[in-house]
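Example 3.
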Amino acid sequence: MADALLQVESLAKRFGGIVATDDVALSIAAGELHAVIGPNGAGKTTLIAQLSGQLAPDAGRIRFAGHDISALPMYRRSHLGLARSFQITSLCLDLSVLDNVALAVQAHAGHSFRFWRNARGETELRQPARSALARVGLSAREHLPASALSHGEHRQLELAMALAGNPRMLLLDEPMAGLGPEESARMVGMLRELKKELTILLVEHDMEAVFALADRITVLVYGRVIASGAPDEIRANAQVRDAYLGEAEAAHG
Amino acid sequence: MSGAFTPRNIVAALLFAALLLLPLYAHFANDRFLLTLFTRIIILAMAAVSLNLILGFGGMMSFGHAAYLGIGGYAVGILAFEGVPSGFVQWPVALAASALFALVIGALSLRTRGVYFIMITLAFAQMAYYIIAGLARYGGDDGLTIQKRSQFFAPINLTDKVQFYYLCLALLLGALYLAWRLVNSRFGLAIQGARSNDTRMRAIGFPTYRYKLVCFVIAGTLCGLAGALLANHTDFVSPAMMYWTRSGDLIIMVVLGGMGSVIGPVFGAVALLVLEETLSGITEYWQIILGPLLLLVVLFARGGIDGLLGKVRHG
Amino acid sequence: MTLFIEQCLNGLQFGLLLFLLAAGLTLVFGIMDLVNLAHGSLYMIGAYFAATFAAWTGSFVLGALLALVATLIVGMAVEVIVMRRLYGRDHLDHVLGTFGLILFFDEAVRLIWGPEGLSLPLPSWLNTAITILPGFDYSAYKFSIIVVSLVVAGFLYVLVMRTRVGMLIRAGASNREMVGALGVNIKLLYTLVFGLGAALAGLAGLMQAPILTVQIGMGENILILAFVITVIGGIGSIRGALVAALLVGFIDTLGRSYLPDFLRMMFSKEVAATAAPALSSMLIYLLMAIVLVVKPEGLFSAAGK
């Protein structure tokens, strides 16, 4: 597909004897919200790690906005407009909430070899940071150290940081993990809003959220794509039901 | 700003007032030694402040920082020996040599993390030690005496102990100011972010390796200046200045004083060296007390003096 | 040619000695995630104990055995009293805490044995030369160091690869939490591993005592080499420690012997005389730098983490 914003071809990754990613292909169009689902151990986080540049694939290619980014280091992909959130909260915990987001802004505001001016006083950094915080609803907490936030607020902060760099595409790794029903609903609402301006790759376990948001779904089992298509197709797919949805429904009871 | 009169700032202000007045006191109490001791403390405090840039703020556990004391010192010593007594040549060379060494070592070491980084910086610093100890022309293991201190223009005379003391104090204050500006700048925040969560910083778009390397070089250069001062202070340089256990001393000063602030290391240097003087007056075997004391600080007072002052405020 | 063989054997002997020291260090780091700067102090204590016990009992071998036991006890005591409080903490805490231990041990040794250092003379039956190859004699003692080290290395291999304890050690090196989850008595395992490391360090210390030195600060000098070896070999890997130790042993010994001549071939005598000692010392660090550039995690990195 010539129009695909993110195109993945024959991606593969092994860890010793374990095949984490097995000949994975993906094609995500601009403006799409594409969900990747699968049982635990399916290799979803490994996939995101390879897409964001944290992990180098053994084989395959990744194209983003027309560029071949397969060998590009993590920080360069961020500058191309590919932002990611982490499944396990990964923040600068000893810095304040506002500092965290301001850093995300700073990363995209030219180089940081500026040694003199007080960065905390720079409006061009602080203002976009405050906007991002307002979008996710964390404005009231901006002065607290990030470690003081609740788990749900961490997820919001993760999102704010991903947004602060004005990305074109978001790689979201289980943004709902550990959230209660209210917080999940809020997150779904936020993602629905974001869908209108960004392309999103969403890795999630929460099936309600997935089917509410996704334009297309890819199912990953043991590192292989077993199905990919519109939500209704996926729901009806027998293989998928056996491998995954059956379990998930039983679990949600 | 309610933050101005924190316990830490008050203690710092008192300390600097005391340091300013010290030569007067020493004069009236006829205590030559006090001046010598505190000149040394000020110089080592500068070295500790430089280390804190990479250790406290940058999270880079370098165990080879004393190497720059040696490099800066030997730059002065070697040039003096070869008939170049001018400080205008010696000191820039000291800074440049330190910067270059830091650049090479940093470039290699920063490819690693955690314990590997500690061991590697340690090993490279020892390498520098062995190289210098192997230079027979400059005294090898025995060291090199410096006949004349660094020469500058007329009114500046480093041989005058009081003048030299105030010069060191002025340079320390300058270094503290520069460090403070650095730490709060974009660069400083990038470094602190990288310390806090390097992966995250790279994910949001910072090429952290670059910034860490530059920080490493800045710290090494500043320590090189301290080395040049130290050489002038003792009129002598020897490889022992850069033996790896001296790097340990610097780390102790930083941790004892508190890694979270620019001025913490100054507290640490004063505390450690005054403690050493006091203890060695009591017993010859004072290290047997210092060792366990260090362990206790690590286990129970990890934030150092700075941390204790912080606790005082919050009650 | 005989000189070359002799130097190779010297390199082997030095390398094996370094292996004993590095094996303990890498084990303790790999399993307990503990950076132990005081490892060199245990090396020093082994030497001091050996010199003292040999003098008391009049027998070199008996003295050595007693020293080994004593170092093991000291090691386990240190583990229980100090190390247990450091597990799980930041590496900086380990570095500082064990640095404090170095200060303590150096001073304690000075208090007990004085600042002068000791000597450990060889018994006559070891202080001789033996014929290894026709026409080639080598120091019997150095040869016995090689033999003992190889035996110990073999024992370590059997221990780590073939016993249950060894399996726990290998598992712990790659996944600490898992071992804990298996319900193994972690505390005991850690104490034993640390004790083993201490005994190895003490053995290295006492074996080199007759030919090198027994003095305060000897631990600090050799600790750097142990660190370099650990880095080159890969933290947690005993095999890596062996390979790296042998590499370092050979390069250092052969380098020091042949570098001056080599330099003299290329440069003037004065340049060679000045540069040789400095360059010889540098060789190992150059090796380490090269390994770092090519493979930053070491040659045989054990950890899957």
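Residues 92-166 of chain A form one domain. The mean pLDDT of chain A is 88.
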